[in-house]
Amino acid sequence: MGPQQPGSWKTAYRSIYYRQAPEPDDPVLQRGKVALLVIDVQNVYLKRPDPATLDADGRATYAAWTPFHERMRGMVIPAIRKLQARFRRDHHEILYARIACHTRDGRDRSLSQKLPGWNNLLLPKDEWESQIVPDIAPQGDEIVVTKTTDSALTGTNLRLLLNNLGVAHIVCCGIFTDQCVSSTVRSLADESFAVTVVEDACAAGSDVLHRQELEIINMIYCHVMSSDELIGYLP
To answer: Is residue 227 scored above 80 in pLDDT?
Structure first.
């Protein structure tokens, strides 16, 4: 499913907790108080092996991840670029978070990034894999924080930076919706930041997980809207 139609964000992605809740007010986004936060859109997640080199299990995994890569290239990265262009044009802050460890062997990583499985990441900070993808690379003095946690708030000095910048409303996008995006959103909400998640500028490993997580976090930790809807509220 593509982005929501303009104006529909107030009733979309409602969980059982909020089916009967009144529609939220329009957000009031003030210059100097709103920032875009791009989460974990890094080379490691966009690279793909040559399918001709894979065995049967590898080809099955390749096929399972193809919708994610199609969404990233066809929707998410273009939506982030659109947001970047508008925020830069109007001089709103843009910040980035990326997963990267400071040590070569990753001994500074949090436990969640050392456990076996998907989240077992070893991304030294200066390696190609840990860099933000070139299509949405930071420009000028846009701030990048490096984290060894899922939440960009708990794993970095982002909280201090946002307070110093005077930012009160964070627009979140990036990957993965159900992991680092969600963890960051929840942490921001707990610290009383207002949060908007841009649904067409995020992705999870599957569309089911993406939509499910948006329904879980919407209305309590954030509001979910499309990039066009968000841009319509920017001053």
So the answer is: yes
